[in-house]
Design brief:
The structure is a single chain. The chain is an alpha/beta fold and about 250 residues long. It has eight helices and 13 strands. About 30% of the residues lie in helices and about 25% in strands.
Amino acid sequence: MHGACGERRMTVAPGGNGPERLPERLPERLAERLAERLAERLEGDGEPPVLVAFQGERGAYGHLALERVWGARSEVVPCRSFDDVVLAVESGRAEYAVLPLRNEIIGEIAGVGALIAAAGLQVVGEIRQPVQHCLLAPAGSVLGEVAAVFSHPAALAQCRGFLARHRAMAPREAYDTAGAARDVAARGDRREAAIAAEGCAERYGLQLLARGIGDRDDNATIFAVVQSRGRRPGAPPATGGPRPLRRSPGAG
């Protein structure tokens, strides 16, 4: 039978002669050791990391998309261009890759579907990655003093309204959103800023000047998950994707 309300739970100690109260908490050192042993077991029982290529630097939207699928299991392979992403899969440097197919604001990402088809890669799923562009700049920067904004051409095109309202900010194309953030941080010029995901502020030591500067609040990019046709079809299941690919323009 259950005891009265508020009565402490009891248990019988192995080999004991009667009830013994459970401790309120484990001794600190024992708790630490149990945590260490659990971590060792999880690490030992886990599968090897999955090599996944994406275009850009860490913190780019492609990086965020692949983390939605593989999380800590991924070992990322950053690539300078979409061609380099395809080459990483073809050469075996990566088992999978994520490539952007289309965006809610600007539509199809030019050339990517044709690139996937020409390389003969197998599309095994897609990931819908929410996109919230932010304006990031070196510490001490002031919004009204920014003269140049760097980002990937697709990101600049998704922020036309913001740039139109701030005509003193000259848009400058870069190969990647996160790469632009990294380079702006390295130069340290307070007159420069980058358009990238908010996480790039902490990653590269930048200040958040403005959040949600895209032309739509519900902006998102659809990424294709691809692999070599020599591999068994299918990507590892995980919360958030990838889901089976719907046929669409540029998807190959």
